[in-house]
Amino acid sequence: MFRRTKAGAYLFLATMMLASCGRGTEPAPYKKPVMDVTDQRIDHLSFPSGAIEAETDDQTTMAGTDAMALIAQGKRLYQRRCSSCHSLDRDRIGPRHRDVYGREAGTVEGFRYSSALRDLDLVWDDATLDAWLENPASVAPGNAMGFRVSKAEERRALIAYLKSVRDE
Q: What CATH class is the domain 54-164?
């Protein structure tokens, strides 16, 4: 139908240029979405019975919100980075993690630990878990875990999540 000639190429380019006339050369500027959040502070709650009254503290509420966000971040990190070897409730390549916070290292019944972890005398808390996640070999030389979490914020989130999955 069309011949491939110089004139045809020029005609094609001219048609394309005309077709794009009226369109700006720059994309529309990005507009950041705006959330309309009304800051309403509730200082006093009255319940129908009148027997219960509560005062809220902005810092406590904010701390609770921040803690929940940190736990949610930790859960996502755990699912994405830890669950290939670990589970909360069953042993896999690594031991189960429910109740790991506060547990003595190398003591999950039925799991075959390396001698480095069996002989380790420590309890998993914020400091020991942080050191372990940052560099397992520095905590227990000769252990079998080759995974590290280099970012302190991610370690903090994982530890918050592990604390939250304890059976009480």
A: mainly alpha
Residue 85: how many other CB atoms lie within 10 Å: 14
Find, among 132, 134, 79, 71, the residue nearest to 105 by Cα.
Answer: 132
Q: What is the Cα–Cα distance from 43 to 66, expressed in whole angstroms?
A: 20
**Angle formed by the axes of helices 152-164 and 58-77, nearest 10°:** 100
168: its two tokens: 């009480």
Per the structure block, which two tokens stand in for 72?
């949610």
Mean pLDDT rounded to a whole number for the chain: 78
Residue 33, pLDDT score: 46
- pTM for the model: 0.62
Map out the domains of the chain as residue ranges: 54-164
How many CB atoms are closer than 10 A to CB 154?
15
Estimate the crossing angle of helix 126-134 against helix 152-164, to 10 degrees: 130
pLDDT tens per residue, range 131-140: 999 999 999 9
